[in-house]
Specification:
The complex is a heterodimer of chains A (295) and B (168). Chain A is an alpha+beta fold. Chain A has 10 helices and 14 strands. Chain B contains 5 helices and 6 strands, in the order βββαβββαααα. In chain B, α2 crosses α5. The chains are: A alpha+beta (295), B alpha+beta (168). Bound molecules: flavin-adenine dinucleotide and FE2/S2 (inorganic) cluster (FES) (2 copies).
Chain lengths: 295, 168
């Protein structure tokens, strides 16, 4: 199963990449981890005439920090977060181990996952929950787009043909005490895409009041979704089992699944409800344990 | 860009199992086929061809990857290890020996991929639990023997290799 023929470029500088994109735009595809693009090219679902391999840009393989922002380069592989637990953003670690299998995680990148815009992408849901933004650049301009405005439709984003994703920014909560998170995923077999995926992350003050809440959903809409209404119900309130149940049912209402081979609409919606409740409850327990220990 | 291109083919230089090799490849040539057809090392298998089964696993700069989903041109200038690189002078690698002793295979089709994934695992871990082995090979499918003996073999190899290092 070989892809169609194409011209291959492996630029060593960012300028060169933008030059190629400027020149060829529509005819090109960016090759990052290749874990979605190469299978699609083999199946002839896409047949770019020019392939730009960006793996030579080592500066995009870094994680840096500035002004309460974690900046993750577009080429940071999924596996990175499998081994790194940053207590300010535990959701990254929680999510990473659910993506595909270890071999795919060794190659696949966060930037590629977002640009590919599969509605079932685990990073999509997790980074929506984290209120991340996407750094986008072309020869002429660079812009920062909140992830909540980035996905347009299935496999479609706001990226223009001359643009690429250079990195992802995640706001960090410095002053606040406790950050808890869970990623819950229903899959038919290990390494498969989600039937339903739910990402929850909470910042809680010492009294258990929610300072910030993020809920992202995978595979229950045309794009990964943020459960905005459910999040807002949490904001500023003490976390209680009643509130958690209410929020979970609200998130289920916000999801927009379709019936397919993986399950019925009703089933998937019910799973969103179950997972949001489970995730928030687990975070609540984490917090309670911490308070017991420190009391 | 400093590449030799002949009739739309690019010269790909790799170090494979410690040996320097080069061959021409079309950009669309997948690494698995390059290794098998151009370099003549047929220990690396191709199964699903769709990034699912892991039988094509090789180490690229020490990292296990599915070589049916990497372009040969992407490996230019890089280091590859395949199953042929494990044994030395007719002697099986301790991991291969452990697979043999524990009957960690039936038809053997998945074995090269299993061995490469777990080679990296053994190199990168101090201790190893059954759970970690199972997680590590979750991208490698075995269609005949199941995973019990494979897991047993990897754990035994870890034990034996640990003993050998202690002896030295
Ligand atoms: C067997 C298998 C199972 C999988 N299971 C899961 C799963 O459970 N969950 C999950 O989330 N994903 C899963 N994936 C997808 C995997 O995570 C991919 O790695 C990821 O979606 C794409 O990242 P990549 O770096 O490989 O991108 P590529 O495949 O290189 O590119 C994907 C697309 O994004 C574009 N692109 C890449 N990088 C950029 C950039 N920086 N700027 C602009 N455009 C860019 C490419 O042109 C292409 O259109 C699976 C893949 C496989 C093969
Ligand atoms: S042949 Fe490469 S994963 Fe199956
Ligand atoms: S031994 Fe036959 S596929 Fe694993």
């Amino acid at each position: 199963m070989f892809p169609n023929s194409f011209e291959y470029y492996a630029p060593r500088s960012v300028e060169e990449i933008f030059g190629l994109l400027e020149q060829y735009g529509d005819e090109t595809k960016i090759l990052a981890g290749g874990q979605s693009l190469l299978p699609m090219m083999k199946l002839r679902l896409v047949a770019p005439s020019i392939l730009i391999d960006i793996n030579g840009i080592s500066s995009w393989d870094n994680v840096t920090e500035q002004a309460h922002l974690l900046h993750i380069g577009a080429l940071v592989r999924h596996r990175k977060w499998e081994y790194v637990l940053d207590s300010r953003v535990p959701l990254l670690h929680q999510t990473a181990r659910h993506i595909a299998d270890p071999l795919v995680r060794n190659r696949g990148t966060m930037g590629g996952s977002l640009a590919h815009a599969d509605p079932a992408a685990d990073w999509g849901a997790a980074l929506l929950a984290l209120k991340a933004s996407v750094s986008i650049q072309s020869a002429h301009r660079s812009r920062e787009v909140p992830l909540r405005e980035f996905f347009v439709d299935t496999f479609t984003t706001v990226l223009e043909p001359q643009e690429l994703v250079t990195g992802i920014r995640i706001p960090l909560h410095y002053d606040s005490g406790f950050v808890g998170a869970r990623y819950l995923k229903l899959e038919r077999k290990v390494g498969d895409f989600a039937v339903v995926g739910v990402a929850v992350t909470l910042v809680l003050d010492p009294h258990g009041v929610v300072l910030d809440a993020g809920i992202g959903l995978a595979a229950v809409g045309a794009t990964p979704l943020a459960a905005v209404k459910a999040e807002s119900l949490l904001q500023g309130h003490p976390l209680t089992p009643e509130l958690i149940r209410h929020v979970a049912s609200e998130a289920a209402k916000e999801s927009d699944p379709v019936t397919d081979r993986r399950g019925s609409e009703e089933y998937k919606r019910a799973m969103v409800n179950v997972f949001v409740e489970r995730g928030l409850t687990a975070v609540h327990h984490d917090w309670q344990r911490l308070m017991d220990v420190s009391a | 860009m400093g590449r030799t291109v002949i009739n739309d083919q690019i010269m790909v230089h790799v170090t494979i199992n410690g040996e320097s090799r080069h061959a021409l490849a079309e950009p669309r040539t997948l690494l698995a086929y390059f290794i098998r057809d151009n370099l003549g090392l047929t220990g690396t298998h191709v199964g699903c061809d769709t990034t699912s089964c892991g039988v094509c696993t090789v180490l690229l700069d020490g990292v296990p990857v599915k070589s049916c989903t990497v372009l040969a041109v992407q490996a230019d200038g890089h280091d590859i290890e395949t199953v042929e690189g494990l044994g030395h002078n007719g002697q099986l690698h301790p991991l291969q020996q452990a697979f043999w002793d524990n009957h960690g295979l039936q038809c053997g089709f998945c074995t090269p991929g299993m061995l490469m994934t777990t080679t990296a695992l053994l190199r990168n871990s101090v201790d190893l639990t059954e759970h970690e082995v199972r997680r590590a090979i979750s991208g490698n499918l075995c269609r005949c023997t199941g995973y019990v003996n494979i897991v047993k073999a990897v754990l035994e190899a870890k034990r034996r290799m640990g003993e050998e290092t202690r002896k030295v």
